[in-house]
Amino acid sequence: MNDTTLVLLGAGNSTRFGLKTKKQWLYIGEEPLWYFVTKQFKKYGFKETIVVSSIQEIPYMKKFDTFAFVEGGETRQESLKNALQNVLTKYVLVSDIARCCIDHDMIQRILDNKEKANCIVPALSISDTLYMDDSPANREGAKLIQTPQLSETKLLVKAIQTDELFTDDSSAMHKSGYKILFVEGSQNAHKLTFASDLEKLTCLKAPSLKTFTGFGIDTHPFEQNKPMYLCGEKIEENFGFKAHSDGDVAIHAIIDALLGAAGLGDIGEFFPDSDDKYKDIDSKELLKLCVEKVNSYGFAINNIDITILAEIPKISPYKEKMRQTLSGILDINQRSVNIKATTSESLGFIGRNEGISVHAVATLSYFNWAEI
């Protein structure tokens, strides 16, 4: 297939999907949906496979395989434009990652007819009564258009060089006067748009029950005349932590544990202390962003366990409120938040009352979409 490049579009933000996890990152067994879909196309031996995604997700995607990754745009059309800049072959096959149950017979019908028109499009006829606005319409000749669609690359590039937005390639190609050939589509090629669509996609198996463990550690010295926050709670002391943010050493350790379990890096990569927007920021806001990211990448938080090493302040009076605060942000039961405190037996910087250190462990599992 040296004359054809595959482009898979998956830069959307899944706003209509309605779940914490983006649909691209639903796990099918042990593979995220975007990877599950991309691998199904490998058998055709395309010259190159280009996966289009948001710029934030591409570094993580590269940990799965060596496909070509391209940054998406604000619209499907912008994403396609970005991808086509990297296509050198005569033909390009464009599909949406959300079209996740691949009918190989349909794909073969598209490929077998690529020389018969400028754009080859799978379509389904309509058997139900059809209305346009409030009036019945003639369903004869009406079609439901699917992807993937195969186009002559140079013509598709020209067709989408316009401010007019098209919802698929064939609409742009038709508007430009190019020849369209319809081939039989597939009832199995249903597009995943809403969470309720999952019931219709029988090719998808439930996620693996594997669990993931992450470890985080953070240490901060004390600073006089600064408010102290620990586990999201204000501690009544006349000193706080020396830090770029509010210095909540416990939350920082928890963030690192969560990111570590998900394989997403560390707190410094997401919230660098060189960025002024994080100056004196409430660490609870950082934790909320971290939880949102971990959830969006297909993970559910199971529990956290932290150990606070400190001579001062006394932690016991605040433990219950700390659990409540953290469980609310993490969206887990309070019993799944364990907080322990110990001293250093007067040894080291902790023993000299110069600061404290916190160790955190977090466990995650794949979000089980099959149970919703």
Automatic annotation (TrEMBL):
Record key words, sorted: Isoprene biosynthesis, Lyase, Metal-binding, Multifunctional enzyme, Nucleotidyltransferase, Transferase
CDD domains linked to this entry: CDP-ME_synthetase (cd02516), MECDP_synthase (cd00554)
Matches recorded under InterPro entries: IspD/F, IspD/TarI, MECDP_synthase, MECDP_synthase_CS, MECDP_synthase_sf, Nucleotide-diphossugar_trans
Positions marked as site (Positions MEP for the nucleophilic attack): 139, 191
Listed Gene3D superfamilies: 2-C-methyl-D-erythritol 2,4-cyclodiphosphate synthase, Spore Coat Polysaccharide Biosynthesis Protein SpsA, Chain A
Residues of the 2-C-methyl-D-erythritol 2,4-cyclodiphosphate synthase domain: 213-364
UniProt pathway annotation: Isoprenoid biosynthesis; isopentenyl diphosphate biosynthesis via DXP pathway; isopentenyl diphosphate from 1-deoxy-D-xylulose 5-phosphate: step 4/6; Isoprenoid biosynthesis; isopentenyl diphosphate biosynthesis via DXP pathway; isopentenyl diphosphate from 1-deoxy-D-xylulose 5-phosphate: step 2/6
Full protein name: Bifunctional enzyme IspD/IspF
Species: Sulfurovum sp. enrichment culture clone C5
Biological classification of the source: Bacteria, Pseudomonadati, Campylobacterota, Epsilonproteobacteria, Campylobacterales
